[in-house]
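Narrative of accomplishments. A recurring question from our advisory board has been how the design workflow behaves on a single, concrete structure rather than in aggregate. To address it, we present the structure tokens for one chain from the evaluation set, followed by the sequence designed for it. No filtering or post-editing was applied between the two.
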């Protein structure tokens, strides 16, 4: 296939991913709002009856999501980003015929149940699956197929966050070891991301998803962002280690009982929280904007940080379809606000510093957990539109990434891959040892793997 043909396929993939991404986004928003309104407004439930019904609905959606994953497409569990990077490495196979419907429907159910999960992971997985379908239909070579997988994943990220530049950089920084660099594949990634962004803006509008009006910070405020970066670096390392700990323990529970028990419990908890404490539910994009524009007390912010942290671990460990980018960004925003509020009690801060710290914290925690500081910087800019804060965001993000590396932190997808390989190699229900991949010392970015490894369904 010539360059023109390849680029045309990449462009069409971007269009298809944009349409699928918008459909998924609108579907999640619609269902998330519909069922609570049905219980409270249409049926007129209140008090104990409302909370009980909400618990049952959320638990049913969580169980249904996990059933679809475990029964029809085990690789559709979790975010899907590890699956794509694993496929580009040659360690996974993208079975698009089963992944596409399962990821879409299972992701719709899990995200709409109220669990703390993001839509960007499923959208990236859906995008790469569409790309694999196109590669199969056009009988592409292995190298072109790998390039098109990256293009489809980038288009998915562009559709999820309306962030085409961050999507292109995600391929450059996150998959630099796996991506087959050439002029045609690189242009293909750009064309797919651009086409997806055009479709997304055409159908949903050209407005940043987390628009936060922020003013420039004086240079005298930069030490605060330096301290925030150090805090987020340590937090990111703790986040990754806690996530793996949660996955291991939930897996042990599932093997000892049933893999549906934990999602059932989380659904029963999340349902009532949608009405009682909405800050503890859902991906968090709307929450981040809401908190950043309010002046909540320090104690309240600290409680929200703790609850969001716990609910992110619990939701992601269930094994249902759902991403982690959005929960990380929402958690980071709350940490930034908490840090700013606490710091203000010690030293005077310039006006709007709280908002600036909240925005910069998104890039910092992203860099410390995902291990992609450049993507974190650009993603924050495209999400919030706060380009006047570029220098504070860059400082916070790179310091956070440096501290995370200094503390021995590693990208979460690399950790998850080694966990998966250890389980499969040892044939044990839980990892007995840590399996380390051999890779060049210069490689600082992780390789992804499935978020959970449920047993294969019976043939």
């Amino acid at each position: 296939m010539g360059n023109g043909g390849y680029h045309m396929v990449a462009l069409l993939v971007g269009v298809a991913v944009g349409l699928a991404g918008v459909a998924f986004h609108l579907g999640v928003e619609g269902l998330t709002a519909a069922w609570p309104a049905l219980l409270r407004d249409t049926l007129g439930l209140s008090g104990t009856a409302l909370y009980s019904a909400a618990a049952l609905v959320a638990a049913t959606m969580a169980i249904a999501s996990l059933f679809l994953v475990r029964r029809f497409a085990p690789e559709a569990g979790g975010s899907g980003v590890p699956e794509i990077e694993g496929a580009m490495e040659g360690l996974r196979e993208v079975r698009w015929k089963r992944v596409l419907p399962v990821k879409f429907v299972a992701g719709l159910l899990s995200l709409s149940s109220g669990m703390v999960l993001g839509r960007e992971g499923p959208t990236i997985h859906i995008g790469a699956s569409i790309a694999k379908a196109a590669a199969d239909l056009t009988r592409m070579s292995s190298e072109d197929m790998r390039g098109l997988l990256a293009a489809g994943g980038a288009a998915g990220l562009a559709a999820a966050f309306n962030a085409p530049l961050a999507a292109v950089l995600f391929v450059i920084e996150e998959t630099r070891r796996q991506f087959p660099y050439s002029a045609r594949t690189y242009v293909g990634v750009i064309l797919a991301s651009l086409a997806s962004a055009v479709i997304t803006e055409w159908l949903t509008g050209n407005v940043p998803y987390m628009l936060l009006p922020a003013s420039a910070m004086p240079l005298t405020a930069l030490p605060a962002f330096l301290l925030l970066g150090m805090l987020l670096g340590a937090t990111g390392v703790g986040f990754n280690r806690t996530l793996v700990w949660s996955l291991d323990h939930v897996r042990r529970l599932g093997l000892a009982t049933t893999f549906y028990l934990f999602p059932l419990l989380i659904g029963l908890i999340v349902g009532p929280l949608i009405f009682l404490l909405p800050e503890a539910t859902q991906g968090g994009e709307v929450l981040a904007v809401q908190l950043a524009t309010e002046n909540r007390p320090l104690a309240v912010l600290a409680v929200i940080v703790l609850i969001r942290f716990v609910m992110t671990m619990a939701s992601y460990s269930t094994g249902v379809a759902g991403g982690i980018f959005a929960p990380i960004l929402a958690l980071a925003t709350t940490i930034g606000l908490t840090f700013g509020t606490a710091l203000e009690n010690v030293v005077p801060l310039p006006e709007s510093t709280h908002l600036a710290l909240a925005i910069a914290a998104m890039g910092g925690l992203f860099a410390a957990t995902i291990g992609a500081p450049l993507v974190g910087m650009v993603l924050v800019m495209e999400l919030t539109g706060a380009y006047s804060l570029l220098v504070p965001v860059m400082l916070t993000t790179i310091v956070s990434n440096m501290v995370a590396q200094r503390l021995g932190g590693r990208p979460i997808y690399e950790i998850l891959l080694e966990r998966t390989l250890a389980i499969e190699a040892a044939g044990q229900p839980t990892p007995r040892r840590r399996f380390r991949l051999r890779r060049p010392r210069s490689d600082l970015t992780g390789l992804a793997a499935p978020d959970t490894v449920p047993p294969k369904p019976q043939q």
